[in-house]
Design brief:
The protein has a domain at about 10-185 and about 225-250 and about 285-305: NAD(P)-binding Rossmann-like Domain (Rossmann fold), CATH 3.40.50.720. The protein is about 40% helix and about 20% strand. The chain is α/β, with parallel strands linked by helices. The strands form four sheets. Strands 3-2-1-4-5-6-11 form a seven-stranded parallel β-sheet, sandwiched between helices. It has a two-stranded parallel ribbon with strand order 7-10. α2 packs parallel to α4 and α4 (about 100-120) packs parallel to α5 (about 155-170). It has helices at about 20-30, 70-80, 90-95, 100-120, 155-170, 200-205, 225-240, 260-270, 295-300, 305-320, and strands at about 5-15, 35-40, 60, 80-85, 125-130, 175-180, 185, 215, 220, 225, 245-250, 255, 275-280. The structure holds uridine-diphosphate-N-acetylglucosamine. The site of uridine-diphosphate-N-acetylglucosamine has 19 residues, from α6 and β8.
Length: about 325
Amino acid sequence: MQKHHNPERRVLVTGGAGFIGSHTVDLLLEQGTSVLAVDNLATGHEANLETAKKSTDFRFECQDVAQADAFHQIVERFHPQAIIHLAALVSVQESIHNPALNFERNVLATQSVIDAAQKCDVRNVVFASSAAIYGDNPELPLRETSEKQPLSPYGGAKLASEALLMAAANTYHFTATANRYFNVYGPRQDPKSPYSGVLSIFLSRFLQGQTPTVFGDGQQTRDFISVQDVARMNVMAACSPLDGFHAFNVCTGSATSLLDILAVFREQFPDTHETVFKEARPGDIIHSLGAPEFAREKLGFSASVPLREGLTAYIESARTTTV
Ligand code: UD1
């Protein structure tokens, strides 16, 4: 990545201490941008910002984005050209058990970002949306125009936030991009809930010498994308030359089964016991796959990390950080 030191370029990243947020922060800093990360540390960790904190171009504020007045003051002081809004309630299960908290963190927080952007003349907002807005739509690959059928308060809130951003971008004439992430994996993904990303769970089990559990027959497929590619798309969108609102799938366009994933893990951990197969989870989607063409045509983004390579690097980095 080329480095042009450009401290005049300022980008605010909400959720900057999270999994995707911290990689986005690191990439912006590598490019010589001044970065302010805002995070309430509900699920983010300051340890994710260890590299970032070594840079003089980096600042951190512990703040809940949904608290509109406090967030507005932060934006006013930093005066960024772009806000990458990644702060969220990230657990689909938690959104089902606590829809009010989901509304606060995944809808009100978006409105708080929009208000601050409008008042402080921030011309570009990037939003972390999700393939969850498509629900269990069987018409694959999913296109940006495919029918939206969210199956959880989480998916509903992401879709509602997109609508708020679209309306705001059209009303106040700024650029807004909703990035619909598919199954993101990579270093710093938190494996601690049973509903965490499957690759983070598999990795943590293999590292502990334990057997992974596959729900179903392992033939289910997902469109797994490396967090490095996702961070790059966030940064590209923050510099988007497009006007108004656009939504993009952030995906690779390739489907990989859990059995194929396990084969890669087994090359790296040949001594682990047999995989345990359990009944499929109720409501589990069998296949999910995104169409990546629109992001390529409009923004020139395409995923560049092949899954085998990304997975091997992920395993390698976990081995070196836990030893
Ligand atoms: C994602 C969300 C999930 C949400 C769903 C619907 C994440 C991490 N998960 O699930 O919360 O309900 O979209 O929008 O964003 N699996 C195993 N063993 C494990 C863990 C998972 O076999 O230990 C399986 C799951 O049953 C599933 C597949 O792996 O078939 C992928 O699971 P997951 O990583 O949770 O992603 P999604 O199913 O896409």
